[in-house]
């Protein structure tokens, strides 16, 4: 099995864990919210419902991303992973707005039901489960260098914080401050939208072939350290899922043979693959003439 497919299998494993965890939590919270009359617990449950949908979408995206290159996708299908993250962000935006709308309507109607303090225990149990799941998924995300799984791990940490705060808001409401529960539901809605924006921003950056300028400069500095590379005249990078592709134009001594030039390009490929995990490097060679450079 290739390293790329092994990473995608790790990412798929993390997505499956996310689906199971969030399915359990959403059912538990939405059922409890109905029983204890808690707006914040309902909002938290809807938040976890978005996580089920996002985990399923990411799982599907990762499954497609594992497919090998074909006549229609010469670079493989890795971009289906950021596409899955993009779809996830849109779904999260939609549910986040619904949660905000529901909270605002409660304030307008002055409808603040008094939740049962037992609902706080649901939040405590949820926080413990999310903490364990977050650590596991984060570890897999690092191993697989998966954009979708990193988004899931980030979302799990946010959900952990939301569960803790939801429990505190239920306790506050049960002690005689029912508005706190509805205020917390608005905060949860805002957190859902903020997380959706972060995922949207990262996925669209990748899909639009954006690439970190500082990372490109690090590549450049590494390439020019090669004793036979005179200058790097052009350097481009792009992401295809978690895979990095680089195009670079270098200038070398124009008197070198084709074989010698070929060895230099192979050196650059190995250097970038070893130091930065670059999947593919396309090296274009041009002659460097010292006397012409002096006249520039």
Structure explained in plain terms:
There is one protein chain. The protein is mainly α and 296 residues long. The chain has helices at residues 3-36, 39-65, 80-109, 119-144, 147-174, 179-207, 213-223, 258-276, 290-294, and strands spanning 229-240, 243-253, 280-288. It has nine helices and three strands. A three-stranded mixed beta sheet has the order 1-2-3. Helix 4 runs antiparallel to helix 5 (147-174). The longest helix is centred in the first third of the chain and has 34 residues, at 3-36.
Question: What descriptors fit this protein?
Answer:
296 residues; single chain; elongated; mainly alpha; 3 strands
- Rg (C-alpha, Å): 25 Å
Following the backbone from N to C, one meets helices and strands in this order, namely HHHHHHHEEHEH
Largest sheet: 3 strands, mixed
Task: Give the spatial strand order of the biggest sheet.
Answer: 1-2-3
User: Alpha-carbon distance between the termini?
Assistant: 51 Å
Gross geometry? elongated
State the share of residues found in helices, binned by percent.
over 70%
Number of strands: 3
SS class: mainly alpha
Mean pLDDT: 80
**How much strand content do the residues show?**
5-15%
Low-confidence stretches: none
Helix tally? 9
Condensed summary:
This protein has 296 residues and is mostly helical. Helix content is 71%, strand content 11%. It has a three-stranded mixed β-sheet.
Secondary structure layout plus pairing:
Blueprint: H1 3-36, H2 39-65, H3 80-109, H4 119-144, H5 147-174, H6 179-207, H7 213-223, E1 229-240, E2 243-253, H8 258-276, E3 280-288, H9 290-294
Parallel strand pairs: 2-3
Antiparallel strand pairs: 1-2
């Amino acid at each position: 099995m290739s390293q790329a497919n092994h990473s995608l299998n790790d990412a798929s494993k993390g997505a499956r864990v996310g689906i199971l965890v969030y399915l359990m939590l959403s059912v538990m919270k939405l059922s409890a919210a109905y029983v204890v009359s808690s707006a914040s617990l309902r909002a938290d449950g809807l938040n976890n419902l978005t996580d089920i949908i996002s985990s399923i979408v990411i799982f599907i995206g990762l499954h497609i991303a594992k497919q090998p290159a074909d006549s229609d996708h010469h670079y493989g299908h890795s971009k289906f992973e950021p596409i899955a993250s993009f779809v996830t962000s849109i779904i999260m935006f939609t549910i986040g707005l619904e949660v905000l709308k529901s909270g605002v309507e409660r304030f307008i109607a002055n409808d603040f039901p008094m939740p049962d303090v037992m609902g706080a225990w649901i939040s405590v149990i949820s926080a413990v489960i999310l903490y364990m799941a977050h650590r596991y998924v984060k570890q897999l995300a690092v191993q697989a260098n998966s954009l979708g799984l990193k988004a899931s791990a980030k979302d799990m940490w946010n959900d952990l914080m939301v569960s803790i705060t939801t429990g505190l808001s239920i306790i506050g409401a049960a002690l005689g401050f029912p508005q706190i529960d509805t205020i917390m539901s608005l905060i949860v809605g805002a957190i859902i939208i903020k997380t959706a924006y972060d995922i949207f921003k990262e996925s669209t950056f990748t899909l639009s072939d954006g690439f970190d300028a500082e990372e490109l400069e690090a590549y450049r500095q590494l390439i020019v350290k090669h004793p036979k590379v005179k200058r790097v005249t052009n350097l481009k990078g792009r992401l295809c899922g978690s895979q990095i592709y680089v195009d670079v134009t270098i200038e070398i001594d124009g008197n070198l043979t084709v074989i010698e030039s070929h060895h230099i390009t192979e050196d650059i490929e190995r250097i970038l693959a070893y130091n930065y995990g670059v999947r593919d490097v396309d090296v274009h060679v041009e002659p460097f003439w010292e006397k012409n450079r002096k006249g520039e």
